[in-house]
Amino acid sequence: MKHKTIDDIALEAGVSKATVSRVISHPEIVSKRTQERVRAVMDKYSYTPSLLAQGLAGSPTRTIGVIIDELSNFFFIEIAEGIDRILSPNGYSMLLSSSRWVEEREIQLVRSLISNRVQGVLIAPISENSTAIKLLQEAGIPFVVINSIPKDPSISYVCCDNYEGGRIAAHYLNNYPSEQIIVITGFAHQSIEHRLEGFYNTINSPESIIRYSQIKTQEEGYILAPDLIKKNHIDRIKTTLFITNDNVAIGIINRLVEEGIKIPEQVSILGYDNIRISELCRIPLTTINQFITKTGELAAQSLLKLLKKQDSVYHHSIHPSLIQRESTAQIPQ
Fold first, then answer.
1. Cα(127)–Cα(132) distance, rounded to whole angstroms?
2. What are phi and psi of 131, to 5 degrees?
3. 129 and 260 Cβ atoms separated by less than 8 Å
4. pLDDT tens digits, one per residue of 123-178
5. Which side of the chain, N or C, has fewer Cβ within a 10 Å radius?
6. Per-residue model confidence as pLDDT tens digits over 265-291
7. Whole-prediction pTM value?
């Protein structure tokens, strides 16, 4: 199929070329109905804006686009902090945005970064097979994937070894006194799949594990806690919770403390991420450390190298570790 131009998109959408350009670069000044009509045509042809076709003069900006999944998740904020630690001293600014786990928004953000002539992109994609990744490849912009391992080996990435993290969690719980183990996960994502794979392949009696999924935020963790008491009797049965997101774990801890349930005497909690506040919450959280800030630093360093030598590929797998705090009892390691 012939590559579509901005004129083709404008013609089919029944708008001017300038309107298409505004939808790409400044959607906030275009009516929602017009945006939807233009984007429907763009999506139909997998249209990626061409810098030359838009007549944008000058060299690319010294700006790096950064797309994360959640601005409300401390994990991604700490990644962004690590990125900034590398970019700022090297004279680059960071343009930070969030996909909010919405694929269409992720695609829109990538298109906007391309049209705004960012010099490179760091992206924590919703999926390792994200359309946004394909758009970046087609545009020829250097980019590094964060928190996922792309199937295409030619793509640079920085990611924790999540299988190993799940294995470490299971090994710890295999030696931990508990009458029942409950696993709580959030968004469906490759990183969570790998954690669970490592966990279930290592844990004793995997068939006995109780599972809750789609618990995504600190607030949802707070709301879930009474259900754990009512349905799983964690106030009477000595329980260990393995929660694959520290934010959710903190919400559950806060509610259990309010309900008068003793941690770790009655309920023990193991999180995952080691976000900074996990050490400072009401009951300091035992968790799997995936060296979040280091992840951001390595991603930024890899991208700066790609800017100098675009045919290079950088694969970084970060080895996780267990951080033991007061939300679990001390046991010999």
1. 9
2. -60, -30
3. no
4. 999 999 899 999 999 888 999 999 999 999 999 999 999 999 999 999 999 999 99
5. N
6. 999 999 999 999 999 999 999 999 999
7. 0.81
Q: Is 239 strand, coil or helix?
A: strand
Amino acid (1-letter code) at residue 12:
E
Please say whether the dihedral angle defined by the alpha carbons of residues 11, 15, 21 and 24, taken in this order, is positive or negative: negative
Distance CA 28, CA 59 (A): 26
d(CA 298, CA 293): 9
- Residue 232 DSSP label: H
Query: Which of the residues in the chain have pLDDT under 50?
Result: 1, 51-58
* Beta-strand relationship, 286-289 and 180-184: unpaired
Separation of alpha carbons 185 and 195, rounded Å: 10
Best CA proximity match to 66, nearest among 8, 106, 26: 106
Instruction: Give the integer Cα–Cα distance in Å for 300 and 81.
Output: 11
Distance CA 299, CA 240 (A): 34
* CA angle (99, 317, 194) in 5-degree steps: 65
